[in-house]
Write a structure and sequence with these properties.
Layout lengths: L2 E5 L3 H12 L3 E5 L3 H20 L7 H6 L1 E4 L10 E4 L5 H14 L5 E4 L6 H5 L8 E6 L8 E5 L6 H13 L3 E5 L8 H17 L5 H12 L5 H8 L1 H14 L9 H8 L12 E3 L5 E3 L7
Parallel strand pairs: 1-2, 1-4, 2-3, 4-5, 5-6, 7-8
Antiparallel strand pairs: 6-7, 9-10
Length: 295
C-alpha cells in the first residue's frame, strides 16, 4: 500500500490523515508546530474510537491510529507516493513548500494541494514538474464529508489526474472532477453564491440567520444551512478566500463582507472557537447570535 505524507496538522490535515489511515494507507503527519500534531493525534484517537464503536470503520481504532506516524520535517517525503499539502491558505507559503517538495521528491511522486482558493496552475509554476501537481480539495469535517474536488491544473497530466480520482475513490469519497480551473473551483462557487445572497438578506434585516438556515434545511433538503456551513469552515477562512478571489479575478463578488469582518474582529471565527453566527455550548446546543450588536 502507498505511503501518504500530509503536511499541516490542522482541522483539514488531521482529517485527511485520518481517512487515509482508515483506508489502509501508511500516513506521515508533519507540521512546524509539534503541539499541533500532538493535539491532532489525540483528536484522531477520539474520532476513530467513536467511529469504531458505531461500526463505521472496517479496522479497529488502534489499527488505524498505528498507521499514522508523526514526523518533524520533510525528510520522509522522497519515500512517499502521495504528498498532500494542507497548510495555511497563504500563496507564498505554499509556493515555497511546493518548490522544496519538487526538489526533494522523485518525478513520479504526486504532490497535491488541499487549497480551496489558489489555482493549482500557479502552485505548479514553482516546480520543475508541473505535470505531477494536482488539487485535492477535501471538504470538512473530512472523516464525515464524502466530497473531494480533484482539480486539474493547466499542465497536470491526464495520468496524474486519473490516478488522483482513483486515489480519492479508494478512500470511499466522491470525486468531483474539475476539468478546467476557475477561481473557487466548482462547489465553493455554488455554495458561495448562496452564502452571499443569504448574507445580504440578513444584513438588510429581511431574515434572521436561523430562519435562513432552517429554510434551506426544510425547503431545499440541505443538511445544514449556509451560516452553519460558514461557522464550520471558519469566518476568517471566508475572508481569506474572498481576498484570494479579488486578487485572481473571475468571480463577480458584489456583496459587502462588512459583517464578516466585524465578526472576525470580535473573535467570532466560528465553531472552532465556539462562537460565530451561533454560540456553541459545551452540552451541544447551538444558539443564534444577535448580529445587530455588531452593526
Amino acid at each position: 500500500m502507498d505511503s501518504v505524507l500530509v503536511i499541516g496538522a490542522g482541522f483539514m490535515g488531521g482529517g485527511i490523515a485520518q481517512v487515509a489511515a482508515q483506508s489502509g494507507y501508511k500516513v506521515y503527519l508533519q507540521d512546524i508546530n509539534p503541539e499541533a500534531v500532538a493535539a491532532t493525534l489525540q483528536q484522531i484517537k477520539w474520532s476513530t474510537e467513536k467511529l469504531a464503536a458505531k461500526g463505521k470503520i472496517k479496522d479497529s481504532a488502534k489499527a488505524v491510529q498505528e498507521r499514522i506516524h508523526a514526523v518533524n520535517d520533510l525528510s520522509i517525503a522522497p519515500q512517499c507516493q502521495w504528498i498532500i499539502e494542507g497548510i495555511y491558505e497563504d500563496r507564498q507559503l505554499k509556493n515555497d513548500l511546493f518548490k522544496d517538495l519538487d526538489a526533494r521528491c522523485p518525478v513520479d511522486t504526486i504532490i497535491a494541494s488541499n487549497t480551496s482558493t489558489i489555482p493549482i496552475t500557479l502552485l505548479a509554476e514553482n516546480t520543475g514538474h508541473p505535470e505531477r501537481i494536482v488539487g485535492l480539495h477535501f471538504f470538512g469535517p473530512v472523516p464525515i464529508m464524502q466530497l473531494v474536488e480533484v482539480i486539474k491544473g493547466e499542465k497536470t497530466s491526464d495520468a496524474v489526474f486519473n490516478k488522483s480520482v482513483d486515489f480519492i475513490k479508494s478512500m470511499d469519497k466522491y470525486a468531483v472532477k474539475v476539468m478546467k480551473e476557475v477561481p473557487g473551483f466548482i462547489m465553493n462557487r455554488i455554495s458561495g453564491a448562496a452564502f452571499r445572497e443569504a448574507l445580504s438578506l440578513v444584513e438588510q434585516g429581511i431574515a434572521t440567520v436561523e430562519d435562513v438556515d432552517q429554510g434551506m434545511h426544510y425547503g431545499f433538503n440541505w443538511n445544514i444551512g449556509p451560516f452553519q456551513i460558514a461557522d464550520n469552515s471558519g469566518l476568517d477562512t471566508y475572508l481569506r478566500a474572498r481576498k484570494q478571489y479579488e486578487t485572481l479575478g473571475g468571480m463577480n463578488i458584489t456583496v459587502s463582507y462588512d459583517l464578516i469582518e466585524k465578526m472576525v474582529a470580535a473573535g467570532r471565527l466560528g465553531r472552532k472557537v465556539g462562537k460565530g453566527f451561533y454560540d456553541y455550548t459545551s452540552d451541544g446546543q447551538m444558539i443564534p447570535f444577535d448580529i445587530t450588536t455588531l452593526q
